[in-house]
Write a structure and sequence with these properties.
The structure is a single chain. With 216 residues, the chain is α+β, with helices and mostly antiparallel strands. It is 29% helix and 25% strand. It has 4 helices and 9 strands, in the order ββαβββββββααα. The strands form 3 sheets. A 5-stranded antiparallel β-sheet has the order 3-4-5-8-9, sandwiched between helices. A two-stranded antiparallel ribbon has the order 1-2. The chain has a two-stranded antiparallel sheet with strand order 6-7. A hairpin with a 5-residue loop joins β8 and β9. Removes the formyl group from the N-terminal Met of newly synthesized proteins. Requires at least a dipeptide for an efficient rate of reaction. N-terminal L-methionine is a prerequisite for activity but the enzyme has broad specificity at other positions.
């Protein structure tokens, strides 16, 4: 049996899994992140959080690690400022709350739109844009890791994070919510990510083939 992963590889723009509509997931499911042995939903969630922290992110959806299921993790930090490279303070020390949401359903509770925040994405590293229109406040109904139904309200930055992650579960990138010219402006960077995503999938297929051959 393979050693449990400390972090997962993050899938990049161009990977087909990021465009698929994710399926429902239950807390009792066993999940298999491609390239790793099956894990419980709780184990996957914990590794997703570690992956998110290492990438210095605020949220991570299951499709971003190759799992087309409706689950995401997110955190609320002490402030909304972007992390600066070389900062000594560990990112985890700034966490106020951690969230693991299964099968989240968003309801807008403040229809006023906000475009003032800059958005980025761990699957589109290095590209940040303002102007993504998001509802200022939302309610999220979801299942927690213990199978309990929960409801949470969020506004401003946290509401944006939740909307961004739920978009991932429906195969939507934040760039899709901006004029097409914005994507075109980043065409070269995105093309490079697409090539990297294709190479990753080819390498993953070769490793899986070799594993199956070893098992006979």
């Amino acid at each position: 049996m393979a050693e449990a992963p400390r972090v997962y590889p993050i899938r990049l723009y161009g990977d087909p899994v990021l465009r698929r509509k994710a399926r429902a997931v239950q807390p009792t499911d066993l999940l298999t992140v491609p390239g790793f042995d099956p894990q419980t939903v709780r184990e996957v969630a914990n590794t997703m959080l570690e992956t998110m922290f290492e990438a210095r992110g605020v949220g991570l959806a299951a499709p971003q690690v190759g799992l087309p299921v409706r689950m995401f993790v997110a955190v609320e930090y002490e402030d909304d400022e972007e992390e600066q490279e070389g900062q000594d303070e560990p990112l985890k020390s700034r966490v106020l709350r951690e969230f693991v949401m299964l099968n989240p359903v968003l309801t807008v509770i403040d229809k006023k739109k906000d475009r003032s925040y800059q958005e980025g994405c761990l699957s589109i590293p290095g590209i940040y844009e303002e102007g993504v229109s998001r509802a200022r406040a939302v309610q999220v109904r979801y299942t927690d890791l213990d199978g309990q139904e929960r409801t949470l309200e969020a506004d401003d930055y946290l509401a944006r994070v939740f909307q961004h992650e739920v978009d991932h579960l429906d195969g939507v990138f934040f760039l899709d919510r901006l004029p097409p010219q914005v994507t075109e402006d980043h065409r070269k960077e995105l093309a490079a990510m697409q090539r990297q995503a294709k190479q990753f999938l080819q390498d993953l297929a070769l490793r899986e083939k070799a594993r199956q051959e070893r098992q006979g």
